[in-house]
From TrEMBL:
It comes from Glycomyces terrestris. It comes from the Bacteria. Residues 11-82 form the Transcription regulator PadR N-terminal domain. This is PadR family transcriptional regulator. It holds the Pfam family PadR. The lineage of its organism: Bacteria, Bacillati, Actinomycetota, Actinomycetes, Glycomycetales. PANTHER family: TRANSCRIPTION REGULATOR, PADR-LIKE FAMILY (PTHR43252:SF2), TRANSCRIPTIONAL REGULATOR YQJI (PTHR43252). Residues 201-379 form the GyrI-like small molecule binding domain.
Length: 382
C-alpha cells in the first residue's frame, strides 16, 4: 500500500481520535496550530478525506446528510492499522531536511550580500510572528496532554532554532559587508591594468602564487584542465578559511607562465611544444600551512591528480614590458612579434624570464574578440 503523505497521516490521526466532519477537522487544525508544522489548507481537507476514502482507510460514520461538509468520517480497521504503522515510523525515523531556505542559500551567490542580509532579516521577522502564533495557540489550550505538549515543544524548538540560525547567518553577511576585501587587481593596477595602446615598462615586485606545472596544448591537454581546476578549488578553500579569520579577498584571475626552448613557437602558435605554469595570486597573509590545509580540503571533494602537484611559487620578475591585449588568444602573435623583434631590440632589452599572461576575462562568457589579456615579458639589458 502506498505510504501516507504528511497531510493524510495528520487527517487520519485526527479521525482516529474521534469521528469528525470537515468543519470539525478545520477547527481542530486551527486550534492546535497544526499548520505551523504541516501544509494542510482548509480547501485541501476534503481532498485528503476523499483520497483516504478511495483507498479504503476512512468511511462515513453514518448516513450521509444533505451536505458533503457535514459527512462525519471515521477510520476503517485498515485505516487504523496503517495510521498506527505510519505513526510508529514517523516517530522512529528522522525525515530529510527539505527546507526551502536551503535552496535559497544555495542560490544566494547570485545576489549581492546586502540583498541576502535583507531577505534573511525579513525571514527572521516572519519566524518571530509564527513563533508568537504557536505560543498563543498553546496558551489557549493549556493544560495539555503529554503528546500535545510534545508537539508544541517541538514546533517552538524548531522555530527558535531557525531564528537563531537566521540571526547568525545575517550577522555573518553583515560582518562580511563591513570587512575589507582585498582585490589584487585593484591593489596593483600597475600590474593588472596596463595600457592597450603601447608597451610599458613596470617593476614587478616579489609576489606569491598557487602554481601547477605542465606541458602541451592548453586546448587539448587534460593536465591543463586539471591544473586550472586544482588552482581554483584551492583558492576558494583559502578564501572561505580566511573569511573565518576576519580577512576576505577576491580570488585573482588565472595567470600563466609560458616557456619553450625556442620562443618562436609562441609566434607560430605551436602549442604542443609549450611548457607552462598556471598561477593564481596569493594575498600576502596566506601562509604555506594554510595552503596545505586548503589542498587537503579540496582533495577530499575531488580526485584531481593536479592537487598533489600544486605548490606555492614565489616569483620576482623585476623589470618587465607589458601591454593589454584585447582579442582572441590566437591573435596575440602579431603583438608578441612586435615585442620580441621590434620593441625589445630598439630599447636594448633581452629576455629575462618566462612569458607571463594574465587572463582578465572569462572565456566561457566573453566573445573572443573582447577577451582582455595582460601580456608581460621580464627583461634585462641586452
Amino acid at each position: 500500500m502506498d505510504a501516507l503523505t504528511d497531510a493524510e497521516l495528520t487527517v487520519l490521526g485526527l479521525l482516529a481520535e474521534t469521528p469528525r466532519h470537515g468543519y470539525e477537522l478545520e477547527r481542530v487544525i486551527e486550534e492546535r496550530g497544526v499548520r505551523s508544522w504541516t501544509a494542510l489548507g482548509f480547501s485541501s481537507i476534503y481532498y485528503v478525506v476523499d483520497r483516504l476514502a478511495k483507498r479504503g482507510l476512512v468511511e462515513p460514520a453514518g448516513p450521509r446528510g444533505p451536505g458533503k461538509s457535514r459527512v462525519v468520517y471515521r477510520p476503517t480497521p485498515a485505516g487504523l492499522d496503517q495510521c498506527a504503522a505510519a505513526t510508529r515510523e514517523a516517530l522512529a525515523r528522522p525525515a530529510p531536511v527539505r527546507s526551502r531556505v536551503l535552496v535559497g542559500m544555495a542560490n544566494s551567490s547570485g545576489l549581492p550580500d546586502a540583498e541576502v542580509a535583507a531577505a534573511l532579516t525579513e525571514r527572521r521577522s516572519h519566524l518571530r510572528e509564527r513563533l508568537a502564533e504557536v505560543r498563543a495557540a498553546r496558551a489557549a489550550q493549556e493544560p495539555l496532554p503529554t503528546a500535545a505538549r510534545a508537539v508544541f515543544d517541538y514546533s517552538e524548538a524548531l522555530l527558535a532554532a531557525e531564528i537563531a540560525w537566521t540571526e547568525t547567518t545575517t550577522a555573518a553577511y553583515e560582518q562580511e559587508r563591513s570587512m575589507d576585501k582585498y582585490d589584487v587587481k585593484q591593489a596593483r593596477k600597475d600590474l593588472y591594468a596596463p595600457s592597450a595602446k603601447d608597451f610599458g615598462i613596470v617593476d614587478v615586485p616579489e609576489l606569491r602564487y598557487l602554481a601547477v606545472d605542465g606541458h602541451g596544448d592548453p586546448n587539448t591537454a587534460p593536465a591543463y584542465t586539471q591544473a586550472v581546476e586544482a588552482l581554483y578549488a584551492t583558492a576558494y578553500a583559502l578564501k572561505f578559511a580566511s573569511k573565518t579569520l576576519g580577512r576576505d579577498f577576491t580570488v585573482g584571475p588565472l595567470e600563466g607562465l609560458w616557456r619553450a626552448d625556442d620562443p618562436a613557437v609562441f609566434l607560430t602558435r605551436a602549442k604542443a611544444d609549450w611548457d607552462w605554469t598556471m598561477l593564481v595570486s596569493l594575498p600576502e597573509w596566506i601562509t604555506d600551512i594554510q595552503v596545505e590545509t586548503a589542498v587537503a580540503h579540496a582533495a577530499k571533494k575531488q580526485g584531481n591528480p593536479a592537487l598533489a602537484a600544486l605548490r606555492v611559487l614565489t616569483l620576482h620578475e623585476g623589470t618587465s614590458v607589458q601591454i593589454l591585449h584585447i582579442g582572441s588568444y590566437d591573435d596575440e602573435a602579431p603583438v608578441l612579434d612586435r615585442l620580441h623583434n621590434a620593441y625589445m631590440p630598439e630599447h636594448g632589452l633581452a629576455f629575462n624570464g618566462d612569458h607571463h599572461e594574465i587572463y582578465l576575462s572569462d572565456p566561457r562568457r566573453t566573445d573572443p574578440s573582447r577577451l582582455k589579456t595582460v601580456l608581460r615579458q621580464p627583461v634585462k639589458p641586452a
